[in-house]
Design goal:
The complex is a heterodimer of chains A (207) and B (112).
Chain A (H helix, E strand, L loop, with lengths): L1 H20 L6 H23 L15 H30 L6 H26 L6 H16 L6 H18 L4 H24 L6
Helix pairs in contact in A: 2-3, 2-7, 4-5, 5-6, 5-7, 6-7
Chain B lengths: L3 H16 L8 H12 L3 E2 H8 L3 H13 L3 E8 L2 E8 L1 H21 L1
Antiparallel strand pairs in B: 1-3, 2-3
Chain lengths: 207, 112
């Protein structure tokens, strides 16, 4: 009986320490949705690129093609983030946890800084018309943000981040594959990872 | 007199085992509060309250006890007009907590 008390003590310490440092309300489903949005957006972008009107006389793209592409990417981002927030809040409510606490603040800060930097980096690249490395840049900064944020949530996120970085470096090495690797990194990897995390962490709430 | 002899030996053994246990952490809430402060740079009162699921007064009295042992320090400030109370573990507090954890783990190992 005394031993059970001690084990309970140790167990509760470990549990409390983890809950105070890691954000566990993150929904794996939001990863899946982000991947789906990215795939849909990429499909739409592909139809834009296929459009003959946007090509110049030498068969390379006119600069105007960038505008619908950027808008599509922005739409994917906004949809992914808002769906992610909605699903995460919903998961937290089901667990009876508050979403806004020191852990989530630390999570947003550690993930937000690389992300914001990447965003500004991409905007400046666009302004200077360095279009070739935009896809790689998005992937690399996003991967860095994930690795940084993973210290405050599920460790699996770190591996997704590392994969994104590697895919981004590959896109940098092979600019011709930038679009395909974007689809891989933001579309397929998210669906895969989101599904894994969903089955690993989201299902405990089942009655 | 004959039956108190083995009792004396038992008492000594238990006392030796319990010596490494810190009385300050005998209460589970105090132990949990200390663990949060060891795992984080600092933590504010309300977040502690929500994490440990205790009342204002209950938490306050436990934290006061830990403060008395000089295991934690208090930092009081204002966020705009709202008072904000944060707690930090001291070096002594962290050391005492680790020692207590080791004692817990040792006892469990011994009892296996």
């Amino acid at each position: 009986m005394k031993e059970k008390d001690l084990l309970d003590d140790l167990g509760s310490i470990k549990n409390i320490m983890e809950r105070s440092t890691k954000f566990i309300s993150l929904s794996g489903l939001s990863g899946v949705m982000a991947g789906v949005y990215a795939l849909v957006g990429a499909g739409y972008a592909f139809t834009i690129l296929r459009n003959g009107e946007l090509r110049g006389p030498d068969h390379s793209y006119r600069e105007e093609v960038i505008i619908p592409l950027v808008l599509t990417a922005a739409a994917v981002l906004v949809l992914s983030v808002s769906t992610g927030i909605w699903l995460t809040v919903r998961k937290a409510k089901r667990k009876g946890l508050r979403v806004w606490n020191p852990v989530s603040k630390a999570l947003l800060l550690s993930g937000g800084i690389p992300l914001a930097t990447g965003g500004l980096f991409v905007i400046i690249l666009l302004m200077h018309r360095h279009f070739g490395i935009i896809s790689a840049t998005c992937l690399i900064f996003y991967g860095l943000a994930l690795v940084s944020a993973s210290q405050h949530t599920f460790g699996d996120v770190k591996w997704l981040g590392i994969f994104e970085i590697l895919i981004g470096l590959a896109a940098l090495a092979k600019p011709g594959y930038g679009f395909l690797l974007w689809v891989l990194g933001f579309g397929i990897m998210h669906v895969l990872y989101g599904a894994i995390m969903h089955f690993k962490y989201d299902r405990e709430v089942s009655a | 007199m004959f039956c108190t002899v083995p009792l004396c030996i038992l008492n000594t053994i238990v006392k030796l085992a319990l010596d490494n246990f810190d009385k300050a952490f005998e209460n589970r809430i105090r132990l949990q509060a200390m663990s949060v402060l060891v795992a984080n740079d600092s933590y504010d009162f309300n977040s502690l309250k929500e994490l440990l699921q205790v009342t204002d007064g209950n938490l306050a009295s436990h934290l006061k006890a830990l403060e008395k042992e000089e295991y934690i320090t208090v930092i009081k400030s204002f966020l705009g007009r709202k008072p904000n109370t944060r707690y930090q573990a001291t070096k002594a507090g962290i050391a005492a907590f680790k020692k207590h954890l080791e004692a817990l783990e040792n006892l469990i190992k011994q009892q296996k």
